[in-house]
Specification:
Helix content is about 15%, strand content about 30%. The strands form 4 sheets. A 6-stranded mixed β-sheet has the order 10-11-12-9-3-13. The protein has a 6-stranded antiparallel barrel with strand order 14-17-16-15-18-19. Strands 5-6-7-4-8 form a 5-stranded antiparallel β-sheet, with helices on one face. The model has no long low-confidence stretch (mean pLDDT about 95).
């Protein structure tokens, strides 16, 4: 089931029993009658809250936003944690230092992408895999036979603070303990407002940002939220649903599991070959990937005249050659952007093709490499502190 978050999805809603999914412990701080929830990794989260999405986008790009996100950490611990993770994920684990994170995939035996997420090394024989949407905990349990490991749910809810002022906000929230020395994909335990939490220099927006992981029942969630909001107020931080995050993550070329990538795609087809360490002795899917075509099928698409949307056909002449997985309006580029998955490999970037929308309108489009800008991730790494001004009020 795809977890789409395009404009039409705000009206394509159903009533769901609250017992089925996990409610956020922060929801009372931002809930309004206009809120639309999504479900991701079995958790409710706000995809719209009645806000001006364009305004929130520019607050993200110029100041900072705080998000309540549904990413789900799963804990893998025990004497065999490292060899088990080496088997399950596509990148090296043994050389991941304590206090660091690493983006990695889990593949099916056929080489398809089952899950993507960030693996953190918390302490000796203790790791968290912060999973995307999907039943990853069950997958880990199913493959844990013969390993002395424990797979558990730390019940950690995640907050993201993203935007150019995020570092100053976290510096204030941590009484100065978090500063410029905390680099991209570094992490550690910190006290925020007198409570110990796990903090990483990561995010889902392509902006400079942090993720804050609560410690289950040991965390007073509302006190943590209030502390962060108070620290962010002098820096213009606002709350936003993920409507602004979605637009920015697409611009940044960040892919969504079960939406843009899934078990029918190899990492190579998704443009994620750099996440595959074939020099590892063994991992699930390695044999299939050894002989897989390493050309990408997933690229970016820009459209000046219309908003691309999922399921739109991409045409070369009158022939359908691919389909959109996601589409948004890029406020920075001033056009529609999205991802297209082609049926076959080819020299697609630089081509001018046509897109046929679900309403049968046809418009010209251009195929581009991902991401749409900042390919070296200088913004997220804190190396580019230029603040955009266009379009912000």
């Amino acid at each position: 089931m795809a977890n789409l978050q395009e404009p039409d999805d705000l009206n394509n809603t159903v009533r769901v029993s609250a017992r089925v999914h996990e409610e956020s412990p922060y929801v009372s701080r931002y809930e309004t009658d206009a809120m639309v929830r999504g479900v991701y990794a079995g958790r409710f989260f706000p995809i719209y809250n009645g806000e001006d999405a364009v305004h929130k986008y520019w607050v993200l790009r110029r100041k900072a936003l705080i998000y309540d996100v549904p990413e789900k950490p799963v804990e893998i611990s025990g004497p065999d944690a490292v060899p088990f993770l080496e088997k399950v994920v596509t990148r090296h684990v043994a050389n991941l230092k304590e206090g660091r994170g690493r983006y990695t995939l889990a593949c099916t035996p056929q080489g398809g992408i089952f899950m993507d997420g960030v693996l953190f090394h918390l302490s000796t024989d203790r790791y968290w895999y912060v999973q995307a949407d999907g039943a990853f905990e069950t997958w880990l349990l199913a493959h844990s036979g013969g390993f002395d490991v424990e797979i558990s749910d730390p019940n950690s809810r995640v907050i993201q603070i993203q935007g150019p002022n995020a570092q100053a906000i976290m510096h204030a929230a941590s009484d100065g303990r978090i500063d410029d020395s905390m680099k991209y994909f570094h992490a550690g335990f910190f006290e925020l407002g007198g409570q110990e939490v796990y903090v990483s220099r990561t995010g889902f927006t392509g902006e400079l940002g942090f993720e804050i992981y609560a410690m289950g029942e040991a965390t007073d969630h509302l006190a943590l939220w209030d502390h962060l909001m108070a620290c962010g107020e002098p820096y213009g931080m606002e709350f936003s649903s993920t409507i602004s995050m979605t637009a920015r993550r697409v611009e940044a070329g960040i892919l969504g599991n079960l939406t843009d990538i899934d078990t029918t795609m190899t990492p190579y087809e998704a443009g994620l070959g750099w996440v595959v360490d074939l020099d590892k002795d063994d991992f699930i899917g390695r044999d299939a990937l050894l002989n897989a075509d390493q050309r990408s099928l997933l690229f970016g698409l820009t459209c000046a005249d219309a908003l691309p949307s999922a399921t739109s056909d991409v045409l070369d002449g009158d022939r359908t050659v691919g389909r959109m997985t996601m589409g948004v309006h890029s406020h920075t580029l001033g056009c529609g952007v999205g991802y297209v998955r082609f049926d076959k490999p080819g020299e697609w970037p630089g081509r001018v093709l046509r897109i046929r929308l679900p309403n049968d309108e046809v418009h010209d489009c251009e195929i581009v490499d991902l991401p749409f800008f900042d390919p070296e991730k200088k913004i997220a790494r804190g190396l580019d502190r230029t603040i955009p001004t266009d379009g912000f009020a």
